[in-house]
Amino acid sequence: MTAILMTLGFIVATLGITAWASRKSSGAASFFAAGRNITAWQNGLAVAGDYMSAASFLGITGLIAYYGYDGFMYSVGFLVAYLTVLLIVAEPLRNSGKYTMADVLAYRLRPRPVRAMAALSTLTISGFYMIAQMVGAGAMVSLLMKDIGMDYSLSVSAVGLLMIVYVVFGGMLATTWVQIVKAILLMAGVILLTTLVLAGYGYNFGAFFDAATRVGYTENGVPVVRDFLQPGLYYKPPYGPLNLISLSLALILGTAGLPHILVRFYTVPDAPTARKSVVWAMAIIGVFYVLTTFLGIGAALLVGR
Question: What local confidence, expressed as pLDDT, does residue 54 receive?
């Protein structure tokens, strides 16, 4: 019942934010770019909230719980990607004064084919991205709401409907503040869970990481012990290093092209604010992913496979 009340409370609060934002949104600049009045720390939190999603949070923690050091390599790729965003992407996008990447490209090139390809690219990327998001969100919500008989399919539909309401009625201002709330709650939850995990080891980092070198579980019916601080559990020879390089390139370049991240840089008043917001996002996301190490290894030690 506690989980249900907390979930409903979050929904009511975010719908209240949407109602407030809908009254303030007037005109294209307000709807698509939040009036370009979002500050650096607000935009940084919103970018972090966008990025610290169900797929990212649950997925990275799960990968570390299964593959230790190799799972953490996903986190490194995500974080380094924001250096690319900071140095190459953020300032030029904001200086363009447009609403989307398609607007920027259409200004430089032939508008019709550019907009068609940009739309196709955005829908393709968002489609694949949303599948992972909705799978994670549906699984989590169905677990939280199982006492009232809310199954997986209904959970996915409910989450999707809520997202549509946030965007259609509140525009970018609503989605920005919903992501800020989400980022704050996620950081608070991760810090709390990390504290609880470390409490089991007397808040001794040495004892925790020492235990991580001897993680025991059953693999194909055979008890095994693995060192989760050493590489090789996932990226195994002979193609492990090449797979890691491929993954790193995909994460670094792919993150810099995510539509829902790029659109954030149109919501700030100027280019310096865009750069500062990326620094805020990097700091928050960096702390978040470092803490997922404790969650993932803690899950391997305390919960098991």
Answer: 67
List average pLDDT for each run of 10 residues in the chain, which is 305 residues long.
83 90 79 84 90 77 92 82 76 68 77 86 83 84 82 88 87 89 91 95 94 89 90 89 90 78 81 86 89 94 85
Give the closest residue to 127 by CA, choosing from 248, 259, 261, 247: 259
pTM of this structure = 0.81
Q: 176 near 46, Cβ under 8 Å?
A: yes
